[in-house]
Amino acid sequence: MESNPSRASSYSFSGRIKNSHISEHIAYLLEHFNRYSGQHISINDIDSVFGFTDRYCSLYGGRSFNAYEPARIQITDDEISWMYDVGIGLKIALSAPKVSRKEYLACRTYLDRYYRKGNTLIITNDKFAEWIREDYPDYLIEASVIRNTDSQEAIKSAAQIYDYIVVPIILNDDSNFLGNIEEKKKIRLFVNAECSYNCPSRICYSVQSNINKRKKTTEEFKCSVGLVPRTQVDAERDWENWYFDIDAYIQMGFRSFKVLTPKFYSSLVYDSMKLSSNTETDHLAVLT
Q: Where are the domains of the chain?
């Protein structure tokens, strides 16, 4: 299904929060992953890098296109060329929860630009995924974690539409649930955690989408940090250098994984502390 079918397991690496060219960013992620995850992989095991490109699209989701310095959040043409040269596909986060036919058609030029075998779109909206399947059959389609595919029935339904399905990170802790998934070959599991892992509300996703659609400003960003207490937290865990038990997932039959840019998971994410304000500027330091 991916660009290198010989891989026993394949990994999708984050292209977000980078401090240098994507080649150096991937080298850093690889070194960190091999040091702390209990695995040892090479660049040949990376099937894709996910994030935004340096061209605007109203259907970006999950994070704000304009919240960071462009070089930190956007993948350039030069970086994409390097990825293609080493066999890594581009995975674009077009995970807006709501997508109209008009919005889709307005993005066709953007979609045309990155259309090639081995590239993937991360999508939340099922109708949007169906339009992509019809018009761009060579794109792989991954169901975003934002879709909240959190039951066996939902997974079976999503498997009819998507090539890959990312389930909520909290389900990584439920071995019985994972073991009962029939379509394990279509599941891509996070191997480290971000703020959605224990977020009881996730109010940010719709706001982020409206910011990217330019219907709201970054000053109108909302996050549940400081509003709803976090649960299921090990305050002593070294979150920046911590990974789930990947060997256990491989033994269950999972083969596709998603790797986030490591960062410090402070109490602003994992405790019920109050923040002085609720703007994107305050929160984006802890939301990768």
A: 10-194+236-264
